[in-house]
Amino acid sequence: MKMLIAGIIISLIFVYFTFKGVNFEDTLKGLGNANYTFLALALIIAIIPTLLRAMRLQIIVSPIKKTSLRKLFPITCIGFMAIVLFPLRTGELVRPYLLHQESKISLTSSLAIIFLERVFDSLILLCMLVIVILNSDVSSMITRSGYGLLVTLLILISIIVFIYFRTDMVLRLLMPLTDRCSKKWQLKIEKIVKNVADGFHIISRPKILFYTLFLSLLLWALTGLTIYALFYFLQLNLPLICAFTVLIITIVGVSVPAAPGFLGTFQFACIMALSLFNVPKENAVLFSMVYYLLGIGITILLGVIFLPFIDFSFKEGLKKLRIQSKAV
Questions:
Q1: Rounded CA separation 247/227 (Å)
Q2: pTM for this structure?
Q3: What is the number of domains present in the chain?
Q4: Proportion of the chain above pLDDT 90, given as a percent
């Protein structure tokens, strides 16, 4: 409950600054000249990345266990719905739990797999951020964020490579800690480390690694094209680079812990991105709401549609996940 309240407070602050001084009558006028053909196109394009995410997950999981797309697509849909619906991004834990439950992969390996997914996403987004910085007048804060992301990624990739290729050394480095534990806990820690290494297995498979990176690039490129199609929907004469600027800055915005649905943080970040291209605030607010409703709507709709395909209760799932996380 405390987390929910904290998230709501953060969202309310961003909602206030988002809609401060906005003339809603002028804002809604933008729908009068809208081209709904491009809205339909954006809707179609926006669905594809979810399928690509499921395909990517299938590839990352494949060295550990062959799992069908029929099983992984519902996991992906429900997992991302949870990210939207749960406050302070606690829904991030649902997907590894479902992967563990449905594919019988250890929870530790499942967490490592989802973590690796995020590293792939961050790597592609960093490349896109470099292109955005070189082609648009972004703030120094965004540029500094890019440097910070680069350093973080280099550290994380180094850790991943070290854990996978030097698992025995990791265990030896942990010996001063594990020697103080009982034999039971020593075996448990060893199992955790080895399960984490299993989750990183694809880094030793160049072809699989390349395919995973390609799918990551494709899904984010399509997300950018969704935004570009929405520009045409609202008759906003903006370049393609603006679409990817909106994408990058919005992702930074929703990374801020907030209320369920990223309410406030999403809109604020979107408006800030559009302001770099001198888009009037009323138009930017309208775009942010259209983009928000499209993205959140598709995510929740897909999650609801595929929820019956998996035996999962959000309340019970998070309860079990907390118990199992403490156990490992």
A1: 8
A2: 0.88
A3: 1
A4: 62
